[in-house]
Queue: 2 jobs
Job 1
Amino acid sequence: MMKIKTPRNGRVRRELEKRAPKLVETGKKTLILQGTKTSGILNGVLSEIYHLKKGGAVRFTRKNDNIRPFESGGETSLEFFSLKTDCSIFVYGSHSKKRPNNLVIGRMYDHHVYDLVEVGVENFKSIESFTYDKKMAPRVGSKPFIAFVGEGFENVDELKHLKEVLLDLLRGEVVENINLAGLDRAYVCTAISSNKVYLTHCALRLKKSGTVVPRMELVEVGLSMDLVVRRHRLPNEGLRKEAMRTAKDQPKKKIKNVSSDAIEGTIGKIYIPDQKVGDVALPNKAKGVKRERREAKKKEANERASKKHKEESE
Amino acid sequence: METETESQKPFQVDVGNLLAFNPFHNFPSLPTSRDELVKECLQEGTKLVQAVADSLFNLPSTEDVDGPLVKLPPPTTKLPREKHLPKPKPPTKWEEFAKKKGIQKRKKDKVVWDEQTGTWKRRFGYDRVNDDKDIPIIEAKMTDEPGVDPFAKRQDDKKKRVEKQEKNRLQNLKQAAKIGALPSHVQLAATALPITGTQAPPKKVTKDELGNVAGMAATSTASGGKFDRKLPGEKPAKKQGKHRRFLPVVEGSGIGSREKEQTENVLNKLISKHSHEILNVNKAVTMYNVKKEKRGRNRRNEEGKSSSATNKLKPKKQLQKKTGKKGPGSSKKGTAK
């Protein structure tokens, strides 16, 4: 016995439609949470990541003791949260003696765990510790430049994986049009050694240069930390293939009032509204015009009229 | 996309993501101080960002109120999706039928001409065309049964049609849900659980209880469940009751060693060779107490109730004395029996 349930509210219906799978995906929402024990540094890291991703992130502040991302049974809570908050990336922070200042960054496919990267945070410097000119501070939600430096990102398996995950985490919304005046932040990730990455967040300064392209200047503004890759789990092949599938032919949006003909080629239709002949303002209407001008216009009109008469008579 | 820089080392630039990757840089020796490391990282970063900006600012831009607007190319780095690709809705049963028969969809007007009133009325909703309640008279036909109310019949027919349509809609949605193409705003919910024997929820049985039940069933067989066919992995039934060991019928010559052991044990208990081990103090005490009470009761019955209090006290005193002399006392008992 089944019953069809549809939302009674327009608001609920719109929310459900937002969460439905789409052909082309815009950015992923991030879920930031913590485990049973966190250190002061880790708290700072989590709150700063949340601040950087303000528009598309959800922060849980309570401790969750049944989340163990790398164990087979410990992911159920994460998947439940991901389903309820509609988040596809999560950042889970925990602190223990064996793994101090631990961050697990993971991605979800269809609200099931897709892949995981575990990194340790070292040498963390928070936003408050930087001194800079406040006017240059990047705005919340602006699309960042992302730069990866280092051959480690190409050669080492773990760093390659970390690069992909960081790109997904940092890139923000996928948009078609972008306003060039609003570009003001950049993330720089350098591979220092085969398992260490230095991540920093900078503000951009556009300086005048000779050409259209302005000269870029980076000023370290926000958080900076060393990420030490500890463990990672790649997705299994079948799941990876399925997740990487893209829509082959996106249905081309039909442009209205344009049709193509075999003989004549592309034809466009233009619809002109009806002309309101009686309401058009006449050029000789003198009512709203100053007296001198009014009289001048009257004179002109008379001259024209007399000319016409002359012509007619001729 | 690759761009050549002055150093002839191509970066990998993805303008759609505002991403730049320099795969050729490496630190030959790690800079000693942190500041130097930071500086070098920033330098490299600046170069990369400059490369992206080069391609970005050269794109055709349109002027907008806030600034120049640029249309980004689609990103080239492939990233995994967060949800599965939406599946197209499967055709409903009516749509399949219509395709087969070649029936085209006709666009319906919102208002329809109503003959009765001579106005344009809406097709459905308040004050609609062909409403059931607007019919004043229904003429009787030859096929009509005498006791049937035609107005009620019309309403029943409509209800049935609506129910049928709802059922068909549910079937179509179930079909869509089976292949995973349910529309996003629709949810199918189970209204009732499948019918079971009793209304009460089934009790959860523990492993031990199940084992007991199996054992009980086994004892009802003639051979006590010894030769029952067991499931793979089932352990043999636990024996209930005391374990009795019987000596083998044939063993060695003369009295076998096991029989010898058995008789020796019994004799030792009787003759009490190691009497201090054999004596069960508590048992001896209770036996003595009981005997005393019996004697006391008999005497009481003969003499009367006067000496009951003193009798009660006496056995306890004698008890303390008797603990020293338990050896011969117990042997006496043994021979008496």
Note: The radius of gyration of chain B is 51 Å.
Job 2
Amino acid sequence: QLVSALHNLTRHVVYRGLTRAEDILSLFPENFHQNLKNLLTKIILENISAWRNEAQASQISLPRLLDMDWRVDIKTSSDSISRMAVPTCLLQLKIQEDVALCGNSPVVSALTVELSKETLDTMLEGLGRIRDQLSAVANK
Amino acid sequence: MLRLRRAPAPGPGGAGGAAAAAMGLLNFTRDPVPEAVSGDMHNLNQLSAQQFSALTEILFRFLIEPKEQVERFLTQLSDFATMNKISLGPLKNIVKSILLVPNGALKRNLSSEQVRADFIALGLSEEKASYFAEQWKVNSPTLTRLAVGQTLMINQLVDMEWKFGVTAGSSELEKVGSIFLQLKLVIKKGSQMENVYIELTLPQFYSFLHEMERVKTSLESFS
């Protein structure tokens, strides 16, 4: 019962985003032991940002990008043309499935995608537009 | 023994081509040519210049867009057969034989001289061989580009969509206010499309953009 009560307290603090000692102190009932109240508040305050970050990290979300690697190949021959020199890009994305679903053993998958030069140019155009939109939002 | 693939090409194609033809070696293939081909070439020679040029046009139009237009190609062939009072069966065989040459030529990047020489070696008249070779020269850039485009690609990225926004709150945090970026990648796996959804944080997005720009520089240095 004690643990559950503590848990509820901390969850409430994190949820509300309380960062000031007074706000936390005001949660305790009137006749609560003074020193205990201060001690608990102090401990909670110390941990609050770590707890918030963890809560954010384990939010439900779409699969998240963990890492990416790339390499450029030159295709020299194929069954339809025996001699050519066509550069192409291989992109490997490491993706972690929804953290909230996986708990402590997240599923990480690697997806390898091939892009031609044209596709890459179009993609960069799109990414550039995202960047412009982002800075427009940031400057508002 | 040295194949005469690049016959004395700089010189007038005629001399080199004729030498290759005389030796019975063909530019467009190393394998022996099926028996039927010389008979088909003989039949081709019977066509008038006009008929031959109409047939050539149908063939090249097919080559330029083969995948979608097989139906149209077959229709055009049967129209041609009816119009010129040729039976469709033999015409199809003739067409099959003719197509051997451009297919091999495309694969080996042959010049129009070599194509002409091959047709002459197979028994086609000089006039018709030259005409076909001319058409080959005109169409080969498009055909080459098509062939390169058909090269095998693994998990080709076909399309990308995105949206970004702000996470307002969650069941654990009442007010959040963090920016997320969601990408939808459409990938061609074999013959099917697959959608992949990924979420990125802002710093991840910027480093992704940076890496992609490095890839572009790398690709450009190789083109």
Note: The helical segments of chain B are 13-22, 36-46, 49-64, 70-83, 88-107, 112-122, 126-149, 202-222.
